[in-house]
TrEMBL record:
It comes from the Bacteria. This is NAD(P)H-dependent oxidoreductase. InterPro entries: Flavoprotein-like_sf, FMN_Rdtase-like_dom. SUPFAM superfamilies: Flavoproteins (SSF52218). Residues 7-151 form the NADPH-dependent FMN reductase-like domain.
Length: 202
């Protein structure tokens, strides 16, 4: 069998090449997955013209169809977002809205298009809100058809009222590194299990 592969959608509000804590954490997740035999790639969504809407292709030079093809080719989706005013970024919300179109798409056996794919989440912020964001993302991703592994999220929130960015840290906190390692281990295990034993056809 070909190696498992992962795609990270980084939902930073900052276009490249600006430094991004969300991208750093997504890279750390991908690196941990590589240690489990998973190849990986990354897209910073804000660098592309992803139009608003709930269709797979919104026309007018919409970049989502190309990103969607990359999602369809992946075994594992990594969705990484910053925390803004206690919520996921508007870019992450748009990704969820575009993924919602998959409810109307099926494979050649009648299964929703995202069945058999694993989704994990990474959240960073210099304010609280990570648990709520993870809950919202997992609800939406699960509804879309993704499978969520045990402890399939990792996050970092800075101390309240003490602004600092994740990418300004000298070292990755041990708790974050350990959580990311668990995420990668469980995600790779689940993706392999779903490849070997897919969900039943409709």
């Amino acid at each position: 069998m070909s190696p498992l592969n992962a795609l990270a959608l980084v939902c930073s509000l900052k276009p490249s090449p600006a430094p991004s804590s969300s991208e750093l954490m997504a890279r750390q997740v991908l690196d941990a997955l590589v240690g489990r035999g998973v190849t990986g790639d990354m897209i910073r969504v804000v660098d592309h013209e992803v139009r608003p809407g709930v269709k797979t292709d919104m026309g007018d030079n919409d970049a989502w169809p190309g990103i969607r093809e990359r999602v369809l080719d992946a075994d594992i989706l990594v969705l990484s977002t910053p925390t803004w005013v206690g919520h996921m970024s508007s870019v992450a919300q748009r990704v969820l809205e575009r993924l919602n179109a998959e409810l109307g798409e099926t494979d050649d056996q009648g299964r929703p298009s995202m069945f058999g794919k694993v989704a994990v989440v990474a959240v960073v912020g210099n304010e609280d809100g990570a648990h709520k964001i993870v809950a919202d993302l997992f609800q939406a991703l699960g509804d879309t058809g993704f499978t969520i592994p045990a402890q399939g999220s990792t996050y970092w929130n800075n101390e309240a009222m003490n602004p600092k960015d994740y990418n300004d840290l000298m070292h990755t906190p041990e708790a974050v590194a350990s959580t990311t390692a668990t995420l990668a281990r469980n995600a790779a295990h689940l993706a392999l299990a779903l490849r070997e034993s897919p969900y039943p056809a409709s």
